[in-house]
């Protein structure tokens, strides 16, 4: 377990004579507004929580939006069976501290029950989609909060904050509802649901700035550590029982950290000495490759990889 | 560091994508893998230069057609400011997308080709920005390199636009001669326009004063959500959560709750686990009142001597956003601040020609992407201001109750 090195400063915006909010406070206010709109207008929302940095920002915002009341909706996690143990540990700490209900939908169970088919070629990341849609249906969720950001990827740059999903869970980029001012339209028909992206307007750097400011717990794998890794497709991959070596691949020990957390078989790490949030912020500020381009095998398959997966109902 | 949201509109021909590409590139907001992907695609398509529009045109159908269809949001930052660009298409059939992009913008950027001067499209963009009350407008006279950096050309376009702008509501205008392709006056000044003494585009974006664009006088607090912990530690806590839409709320203020008209005093303002003395736009806060008055979502907290009058007869400008035309007698759902209700279209007064500003009073319907003035009667009273006074309490959306789709965007002229 790791927490930000700096102690949490006074997080209430200072009331200045010029009545100005910093950009981070503006983003926070906008996101909290979205959380409250959804809690007020939807019958059964839930928050998708991966334990990654974006979903930790989401938990923090939800905590603030309803304080001193508890977060008025459950947290849903899709367990791929290939998750990093450090991430699951952080998840449990957060859930415990906030006293929110955790629902775990397991890809293993979905395979066992024939909900998704593991043909040995499809990545766990992809099998998550069917597992997620099934969990939404089973629980009758009408709104799913996600930590997607528009700066991550081109298809996401055009996605709405309230992103409509039809009764097959699919996104239709050509039929998106206009979204004006801060007036969000939450009308859905039975069987449909809405994906909600409260941190749409945050960048990777904003996320790190905010985590540094808030001083909240993050999975330790974001920080520089020693790990046994090997090279695959130009990425450093973690040694793991789920990740059998292919001919020619050699395991060595390196000082690394992860920029994103996902399926252990697909998520690469980068060599880094950044062991505090401050050092990570420095690193992110000068990075020349996007976080997904650098370390996510699942987004590299084609130029429209994300758009295609989103249409199917991916996060 | 503060935040500036700006909207751009235009087609590939104007050099808009090149300009955005340059802002992103010169502020080092494009990543190597993004640039490599765009370079590879440009080569495979046989382009002679790197097509920076590929960076912004994100959807498959857009890349296939080579046009921008939807609003794309882009982000970059300089040491002084973070910027959110709402990048929208310029053609008339995408007016609704331009309106969407402009709705949240502090500043609008209109591009003209120096060789062509003002076109119908650039006039339309200015009209839409004015209609949406975007307080700052920048006219970029682009492709100055193709007119030999002629001061005379710049002056002519400047004057023509200033004359046209007198018919609009544009409180702040800057006209900047640029070459997006070569970068002159975008981030760096260059040596081609010694006669131009105004700011570069980036300098202007970084320094334009937006703090005064908010209304800090007329207190408006639409209640979003009632926070009731029902826990032992906070047994009696009852707070009204929302985002300040106007004015400044202070501890101790005498306030009125609308539409009930009950009065009370602000006992405290909470931001998470801290109490603050004041709240102002766009802060998200939780307000506690001294008295046990009935307050729920959709209500508004305002000052006793400065509160909007609940109104059900609404006179508004509408941008119609769906294929089936809007006709009198239509019944629609309406969302205004945190309040939902139903609305009946009583009359369509005129259709506004956004190219000529002509008001067509003979029409009795509004088609997709058309803008007009209408009269509505709502089932619930709206707690509203004119859009000119407050963009949050003066705006609403109309929703088709059968399909659930957002079909109209409204800006209130007056209400009674």
UniProtKB/TrEMBL annotation, chain A:
Domain annotation Phosphoadenosine phosphosulphate reductase: ranges: 45-268
Group of enzyme by EC: transferase
Family: Belongs to the PAPS reductase family. CysD subfamily.
PANTHER family named among the record's database cross-references: SULFATE ADENYLYLTRANSFERASE SUBUNIT 2
GO BP term, example: sulfate assimilation
ATP-binding found in the keyword field: yes
Keywords: ATP-binding, Nucleotide-binding, Nucleotidyltransferase, Transferase
Pfam (any one): PAPS_reduct
Keyword ATP-binding recorded: yes
Protein name: Sulfate adenylyltransferase subunit 2
One annotated GO molecular function: ATP binding
Enzyme Commission code: 2.7.7.4
Domain of life: Bacteria
From TrEMBL, chain B:
Keyword Transferase appears in the UniProt entry: yes
Name the record gives this protein: sulfate adenylyltransferase
Entries under Gene3D superfamilies matching the protein: P-loop containing nucleotide triphosphate hydrolases (3.40.50.300), Translation factors (2.40.30.10)
Recorded superkingdom: Bacteria
One GO biological process term: sulfur compound metabolic process
One GO MF term attached to the UniProt entry: sulfate adenylyltransferase (ATP) activity
EC number: 2.7.7.4
Tr-type G domain: residues covered: 1-230
PROSITE patterns: G_TR_1, G_TR_2
Keywords: ATP-binding, GTP-binding, Nucleotide-binding, Nucleotidyltransferase, Transferase
Keyword hit for Repeat: no
PANTHER family given in the database record: TRANSLATION FACTOR (PTHR23115)
Cross-referenced Pfam families: GTP-eEF1A_C, GTP_EFTU
């Amino acid at each position: 377990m790791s927490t930000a090195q700096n102690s949490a400063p006074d997080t209430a915006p200072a009331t200045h004579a010029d009545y100005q909010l910093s950009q981070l406070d503006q983003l926070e206010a906008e996101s909290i507004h979205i959380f409250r709109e959804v809690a007020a207008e939807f019958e059964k929302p839930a928050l998708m929580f991966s334990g990654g940095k974006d979903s930790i920002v989401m938990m923090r915002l939800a905590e603030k939006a309803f304080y001193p009341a508890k977060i008025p909706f459950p947290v849903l996690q899709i367990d791929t069976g290939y998750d990093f143990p450090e991430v699951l540990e952080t998840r449990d700490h957060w859930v415990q501290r906030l006293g929110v209900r955790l629902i775990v939908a397991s890809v293993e169970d979905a395979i066992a029950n024939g909900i998704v088919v593991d043909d040995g070629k499809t990545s766990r990341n992809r099998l998550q989609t069917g597992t997620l849609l099934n969990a939404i249906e089973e629980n009758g969720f009408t709104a799913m909060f996600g930590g997607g950001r528009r700066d991550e990827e081109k298809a996401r740059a055009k996605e709405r904050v309230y992103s409509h999903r039809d009764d097959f869970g699919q996104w239709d980029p050509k039929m998106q509802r206009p979204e004006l001012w801060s007036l969000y339209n939450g009308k859905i028909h039975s069987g449909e649901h809405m994906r909600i992206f409260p941190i749409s307007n945050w960048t990777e750097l904003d996320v790190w700035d905010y985590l540094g400011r808030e001083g909240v717990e993050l999975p330790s794998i974001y920080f520089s550590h020693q790990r046994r890794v090997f090279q695959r497709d130009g990425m450093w991959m973690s040694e793991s029982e789920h990740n059998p070596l292919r001919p020619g691949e050699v395991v060595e020990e390196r000082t690394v950290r992860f920029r994103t957390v996902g399926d252990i078989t697909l998520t690469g790490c980068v060599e880094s000495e950044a062991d505090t949030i401050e050092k990570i912020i420095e690193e992110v500020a000068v990075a020349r490759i996007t976080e997904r381009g650098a370390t996510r095998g699942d987004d590299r398959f084609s130029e429209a990889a994300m758009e295609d997966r989103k249409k199917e109902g991916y996060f | 560091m503060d935040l500036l949201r700006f909207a751009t509109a235009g087609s590939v021909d104007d050099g808009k994508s090149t300009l955005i590409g340059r802002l992103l590139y010169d502020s080092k907001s494009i990543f190597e893998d993004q640039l490599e992907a765009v370079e590879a695609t440009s080569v495979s398509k046989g382009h002679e230069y790197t097509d920076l529009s590929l960076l912004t045109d994100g959807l498959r159908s857009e890349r296939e057609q080579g046009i921008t269809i939807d609003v794309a949001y882009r982000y970059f930052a300089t040491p002084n400011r973070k910027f959110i660009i709402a990048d929208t298409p310029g053609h008339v059939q995408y007016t609704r997308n331009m309106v969407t992009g402009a709705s949240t913008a502090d500043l609008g950027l209109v591009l003209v080709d120096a060789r062509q001067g003002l076109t119908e499209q650039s006039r339309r963009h200015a009209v839409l920005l004015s209609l949406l009350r975007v307080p700052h407008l920048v006219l970029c006279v682009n492709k100055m390199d193709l007119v030999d950096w002629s001061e005379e050309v710049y002056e002519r376009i400047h004057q023509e636009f200033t004359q046209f702008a007198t018919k609009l509501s544009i409180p702040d205008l800057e006209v900047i001669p640029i070459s997006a392709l070569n970068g002159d006056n975008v981030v760096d000044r260059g040596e081609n326009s010694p006669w131009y003494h105004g700011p570069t585009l980036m300098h202007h974006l970084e320094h334009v004063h937006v703090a005064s664009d908010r209304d800090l006088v007329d207190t408006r607090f639409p209640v979003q959500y009632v926070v009731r912990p029902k826990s032992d530690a906070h047994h009696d806590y009852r707070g009204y959560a929302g985002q300040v839409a106007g004015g400044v709320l202070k501890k101790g203020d005498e306030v009125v709750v609308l539409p009930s008209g009950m009065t009370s005093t602000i006992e405290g303002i909470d931001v998470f686990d801290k109490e603050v003395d004041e709240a102002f736009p766009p802060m998200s806060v939780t307000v506690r009142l001294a008295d046990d008055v009935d307050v729920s979502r959709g209500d508004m907290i305002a000052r006793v001597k400065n509160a909007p009058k609940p109104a059900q007869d609404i006179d508004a400008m509408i941008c119609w956003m769906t294929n089936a035309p809007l006709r009198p007698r239509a019944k629609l759902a309406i969302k205004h601040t945190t309040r939902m209700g139903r609305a009946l279209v009583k009359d369509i007064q005129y259709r506004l020609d956004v190219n000529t500003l002509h008001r067509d009073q003979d029409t009795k319907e509004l088609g997709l992407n058309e803008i007009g003035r209408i009269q509505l009667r709502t089932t619930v009273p709206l707690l509203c201001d004119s859009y000119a006074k407050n963009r949050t309490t003066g705006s609403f959306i109309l929703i088709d109750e059968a399909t659930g789709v957002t079909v109209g965007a409204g800006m209130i002229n007056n209400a009674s």
